[in-house]
Amino acid sequence: MISERDTDDKNFKSAVDSAIAACRSETGIPELEEIQQKCYATGAYMTAYAESLHEVRTHLSKQFLSLDIALKESLEQAKSRVVVVLKTYGKLEKIAEGNGSEFLKNLAEKIPENLGGLKLGFQTLATFDLQYRGLVQHRIRRHLDVLTPNRTTYRLEGGLLDKWIDIKTGKIHTSSPAEKIANNLSKAQAEAVNNCEKELKTLLKEPSQAGFAIVEEFVDRVLRAEGVRTEWQIFLQEVASDVWIDEFGTTMERTQLRRDWMQRIGEVDHVKQPDALNFLR
Question: What is residue 129's three-state secondary structure?
Fold first, then answer.
């Protein structure tokens, strides 16, 4: 897993690409007729422009909310990889139900309060979360200033009527106030999208790095922390008949099974099981 720590998260990258594409194809910019109607309704072009900026900005920001789902899915994949190992090699599927976060939460509830270190390890991994509003939102919002009336650099000052020369005919044309508003909205929206895209591309590794960090923390808590191996021994004594349903026999057999289990799980720390917990390193 350490080899993946500094790589772009594919799930998050795909979601970012989709969001940016949606922003460019569905701009939320009103049609000229709608802008003109706003002007008539408000009695002022500046007011109509401000309303339109608000509409385009809120439409744009909404497109990025889908990134929250991608962040959660990426982290859940990291947790699920841990759970597969716990179930397959630790046989812990026999004492807790569910997959991913649900399994970790259910297993944490099975661990007695007096085994605080072990319980904390599973609780920490189960409850850790990545959210759009915590990781991405504040980075995006600053690039939306260009679509905020009192902050935008695309203003209507200097006259509402734009004049331009057709280089083919040499004729002078005049753009209406509504056309100027639409043009400003188009430029501001494009600038915002481009800047958001640049910002988001700097975050593509974040889910991978966060997933690696929380799994490393989990391994520290449940395998390397002081006293945790003793807590495992105590916990396994309590769940022995559930973990080893088929093998459960004499006291000596149970003791050997627990010893073998602890040795197998302990190998995580030395990365001797490439098909088991090797990815945790």
Answer: coil
Q: Are 16 and 67 in contact (CB under 8 A)?
A: yes
pLDDT at 209 over 90: yes
Q: Is 167 helix (H, G, I), strand (E, B) or coil?
A: coil
| pLDDT tens per residue across span 220-240 | 999 889 999 899 988 988 887
| CB-based contact 132:69 (threshold 8 Å) | no
Instruction: Give the separation between CA 101 and CA 80, rounded to whole angstroms.
Output: 7
The answer to whether the CB of 85 falls within 8 A of the CB of 77 is no
Q: pTM of the prediction?
A: 0.81
Q: What are the φ/ψ torsions at residue 171 (nearest 5 degrees)?
A: -80, 150
Residue at 111: amino acid letter: I
- SS3 state at 163: strand
- The pLDDT, as a whole number, for residue 174 is 61
CB atoms within 10 A of CB 127: 12
Can you tell me the distance from the alpha carbon of 207 to that of 70, in angstroms, rounded to the nearest whole number? 9
Residue type, 241: S
